[in-house]
Amino acid sequence: MLNARTRSRIFQVAAGIAAVSPLLVLLFVAGVLFVDAWPAFKFQGFSFFTGITWNMGNMYASNPIVHNGVEGAPGATFGILPFIVGTLGSSVIAMLIAIPISLLSAFALVYKIPHRYARWISSAVELLAGIPSVVFGLWGMVVLAPIVANQIGPWLSHFGKVIPFLAGPVGSGFGLLTSGIVLAMMVIPIITATSRDLIAQVSKLPIEGAQALGMTTYESVRHITFPLVRRGVIGAIILGWGRALGETMAVLMVSGNATNYLPTNLYSPISTMASTVAALLDGALTDFSKLSIHALALIAVTLLIITMITNLLARLLVQLGRRDVGTEA
Amino acid sequence: MTNDTVALDDSIHLTESELLELEAVLTGGIHLQKTAEIAKETVIRVENLSAYFGHKQVLNHLQLEIKDKEITALIGPSGCGKTTFLRTLNRMSHTVPGFRHEGTVNVLGQDVAMVRDVESFRRAVGMLFQRPNPFPMSIMDNLTLALKLFGVSKKERVEIAKAKLDEVGLYDDLKDRLHQSPFALSGGQQQRLCLARALAVQPKVLLLDEPASALDPKSTKLLEDLFVRLAEHMTIVIVTHNLAQAKRIAKRTAFMEAGEIVEFELTDKLFYHPNDPRTRVYVEEQIG
């Protein structure tokens, strides 16, 4: 039998490895991605991020072209601007829908809905967070897309005179708006559950004080609870935003898979970065020059960087908006 | 020397009652308030009040009249329903799911069960809680937030805030840090800030739920003096576990036990000559 000292030693080493492993995994994944993506960046340069045309070239030819010292299939050119726009556009729409709904449900669950009902609704919200994305995608294809094409789209297009981006044609229902709504459905449970837990932790005492002063529930929530949970709620929003940016399957099923095309209105077909990687991987594997694989890796790197930038920006906003009072107490 | 006047010297003649009053003035305003018995208006009238949380009855047929410009204390063992009763007076009990009441509770001429505009009603019936509960914002904003929401102009609300802060004796200490967090203040200061905040919306009735139970003796004394002064122009109801406190500041005291009012009397009478044996037992045990 091992003695206590040895067991303690083993525990310490194991705990240490476990503690640093998330960082190591992140460094490893990022490292591999960067190495893998590098030839594509060398081949295409910065036009990779600004180009509209994505063409993996004639992958069955045997006469590679050489550009900047990198071999590629004839005709190959990689521009991912439409994917960047599609990713940001669909996630922005998702957040516009999800943030108000999530926050209102979270506040209602804590303050307005009687506890025994709130428990059931909370479980439902958590269940919603666990639904596989392919299920959301299927729902989007079968149920949502026709509704967007036949009801929501035509109705919204009336506002096209004021906001040109809302004008028709409404199209097939597969595109930016449908992707945004599906993403919102997937993000709402994340933001709701996290914010609800935060709000429930806020002391009831100042809320009672506010109500005793003659403030309405809305006023006390707006002025007392919200400032206390604002930072945490923004954290929850970042979490949801990250999910929307990286979501692959559901978007792939409802986005319309547009390539070489920037969205012209709210209903245009799009592709996101994540869904493009998934959709094109199979084809890219047949590229004799391997350059297409490197290009997909570079998309992944770009997504990683965009996610990190939006994260940092959001945190910066929180820092700037932070007042010297309140949240520290 | 005649029967009804006392000659202090050749020039001043006072009636006996005038002399009593003079004595009262000299020995302090509190005494004056206790002796000068004027017919006062009833501000809170409770008739046959029973209250329930779900199926559990917490108040049983309460009967009580609370007069204007007086301090009325509610005493009794923990769980006797004093706080629930107090919170029924400004409808805070009603925010608890499952709460309901029977009988009438009339506050400032309004039946609390019938109040439609709860916000205006609560503005007239202020409340101070057991633990200080400043809002997570600057000291000044604590005082002005409600006024701002009620549409008072900025200049006016800052003036009110400073006046109320002065009234509770905090202005001199805090005038240079009005834009700082209230959480750095001592418990007593925080509680006085909360009192100033409650006073800023000009309530006519002030409900105090063990307002000094979390405070040290010095802060308690400061608060008690404030309550006595405030009672000159408003009605105060205080729930307290501190019998000495009730004795010090309350004109009348109600002793509650198991959801009932056992006895409601002038404070001195209740403490020194209680009618009900239950009151006697409680008072003697508490004082020891």
Per-chain topology:
The complex is a heterodimer of chains A (329) and B (288).
Chain A: H1 4-44, H2 47-50, E1 54-55, E2 65-67, E3 70-72, E4 77-78, H3 81-112, H4 115-129, H5 133-156, H6 176-201, H7 204-212, H8 217-246, H9 249-254, H10 273-284, H11 291-321
Antiparallel strand pairs in A: 1-4, 2-3
Chain B: E1 5-7, E2 13-15, H1 16-27, H2 29-35, E3 42-53, E4 56-67, E5 71-75, H3 82-88, E6 99-107, E7 110-111, H4 118-124, E8 125-128, H5 139-149, H6 154-167, H7 171-174, H8 187-200, E9 205-209, H9 217-230, E10 235-239, H10 243-249, E11 252-257, E12 260-266, H11 267-272, H12 277-287
Parallel strand pairs in B: 5-10, 5-11, 8-9, 9-10
Antiparallel strand pairs in B: 1-2, 3-4, 3-6, 6-7, 11-12
Helix pairs in contact in B: 1-2, 5-6, 5-8, 6-8
For the structure shown, list the relevant keywords.
heterodimer; A: 329 residues; mainly alpha; MetI-like fold; two-stranded antiparallel ribbon; two-stranded antiparallel sheet; 11 helices; 4 strands; disordered C terminus; B: 288 residues; alpha/beta; six-stranded mixed sheet; four-stranded antiparallel sheet; 12 helices; 40% helix; globular
Number of helices of chain B: 12
Classify the helix fraction of chain A into a percent range: 55-70%
- Unreliable sequence segments of chain B: 1-11, 28-37
Order of helices and strands of chain A: HHEEEEHHHHHHHHH
Uncertain segments of chain A are 323-329
> How many strands appear in the DSSP assignment of chain A?
4
* Mean pLDDT rating of chain B: 84
Distance N to C terminus of chain B: 49 Å
Write down how many β-strands of chain B occur, each being a DSSP E stretch of 2 or more residues.
Answer: 12
Q: What is the number of domains of chain A?
A: 1
Q: What does the main sheet of chain A amount to? A: 2 strands, antiparallel
User: What is the spatial order of strands in the main beta sheet of chain A?
Assistant: 1-4
CATH superfamily of chain A: MetI-like
Envelope shape of chain A: globular
Name of the CATH architecture of chain A: Orthogonal Bundle
Quick one: which chains have the greatest interface? A-B, 25 and 31 residues
- What is the CA-atom radius of gyration of chain B, in angstroms? 21 Å
Calculate the terminal CA-CA distance of chain A, rounded to whole Å. 50 Å
